[in-house]
UniProtKB/TrEMBL annotation:
A Gene Ontology cellular-component term: plasma membrane
Key words of the record: Cell inner membrane, Cell membrane, Cell shape, Membrane, Transmembrane, Transmembrane helix
Gene Ontology biological-process annotations: regulation of cell shape
Gene that encodes it: mreD
Name of the protein in its database record: Rod shape-determining protein MreD
InterPro entries to which the protein is assigned, alphabetical: Cell_shape_determining_MreD, MreD_proteobac
Keyword Transmembrane helix: yes
Regions crossing the membrane: 33-61, 99-116, 128-147
Function: Involved in formation of the rod shape of the cell. May also contribute to regulation of formation of penicillin-binding proteins.
Length: 157
């Protein structure tokens, strides 16, 4: 019960951060908060958080951002499945090595999202689509330490 409350609170906080409005000049520098939190919990507790939760949170992000329904669900499921299949290996990496892997996963998220946006006519080709992945990778070590300390504080296993 305690673990469920902590999961829900971390996901709510991530969704709140996802909903922050950035100035139009800085919109490319917005991290993928919800996906980062999902990836942490998949690495830490892969049997409690998985593809189903990623799909649901993706739908919530779609509703929050007003985009194509199912776009974030699809990308979150793809990235979460990739992370879940490699979680044992990721646990052994140092934080900076995990950041590189997080960059690659969120780049896949951004690329698939761009393809969907391009197909619907909402996106122009630019390499800036990878900037959220870079910002998220830079934030990963600090987010990892924060969420790990929360997990240890409440003895979630």
């Amino acid at each position: 019960m305690k673990s469920t409350i902590v999961f829900v609170l971390t996901f709510i906080l991530a969704l709140m951060l996802e909903g922050l409005v950035f100035p139009s000049d800085l919109v490319w520098y917005k991290p993928e908060w919800t996906l980062l939190v999902i990836l942490y919990w998949v690495i830490a507790l892969p049997f409690k958080v998985g593809v189903g939760i990623a799909w649901f949170l993706g739908l919530l992000v779609d509703l929050l951002q007003g985009g194509v329904i199912g776009q974030h669900s699809l990308t979150y499921v793809v990235v979460t499945a990739a992370c879940a299949s490699l979680y044992k290996r990721l646990r052994m990496y140092r934080r900076w090595q995990q950041s590189i892997f997080i960059f690659l996963l969120i780049s896949i998220n951004q690329l698939v999202g761009f393809w969907i946006d391009h197909y619907t006519g909402d996106a122009d080709p630019t390499l800036m689509i990878f900037m959220p992945a870079l910002v998220s990778a830079i934030l990963w070590p600090w987010l990892f330490v924060l969420l790990r300390s929360i997990r240890r504080l409440y003895s979630i296993q």
